[in-house]
Amino acid sequence: MNLPLAHGIDLVDFARIESMIEQHGQRFMDRVFTAREQAEAAGVKNRIEKLAGRFAAKEAVMKLVGTGWRGGVAWTDIEVTNGPMGEPRLEISGEIRRVAEQMRIGPIALSITHTANFAIASAVAVRAGS
Question: Domain span at residue 10?
Fold first, then answer.
């Protein structure tokens, strides 16, 4: 049986993301979101909602592995995209991947939901080979 090894959760206010984009523009976008994430959010009517969900997911994954945003971790080490049915998909690379492998983390299940003003993401990992 695959029992959970780690869990991370995060809540993000849409206004926070909108403010960061207004203050820092493309510099913020490039620092936090991969080109693919930016492309998926471009031109959709709920762009801020989508970006806030991605931000919350990245924070949840950082909490899951226990690094936070330090020790060589880059926001873009975590990429959140959508599968064919709209489900969130996660790809990790760089320092996040190294730490996850060291922890023997296998698949990470990701869930994102939204309210009128907030995005919430939850990430759950199981031990590799369990």
Answer: 4-127
Q: Which amino acid is at 15?
A: A
Chain centre to alpha carbon of residue 43: 20
User: Is the Cβ–Cβ distance between 123 and 3 less than 8 Å?
Assistant: no
- Contact between 124 and 109 under an 8 Å Cβ cutoff? The reply is yes
Length of the chain equals 130
User: In the chain, how many domains are there?
Assistant: 1
Chain centroid offset of residue 66 CA? 14
Instruction: Give CA–CA dist 95/67, Å, rounded.
Output: 9
Task: Give the domain CATH number at 50.
Answer: 3.90.470.20
> What token pair was written down for 39?
């492309």
Nearest 5 degrees, angle CA 6-CA 11-CA 13? 160
CA distance 14 to 79: 19
| 73-125 residue pLDDT tens | 899 999 999 999 989 999 999 999 999 999 888 889 999 999 999 999 999 99
pTM over 0.70: yes
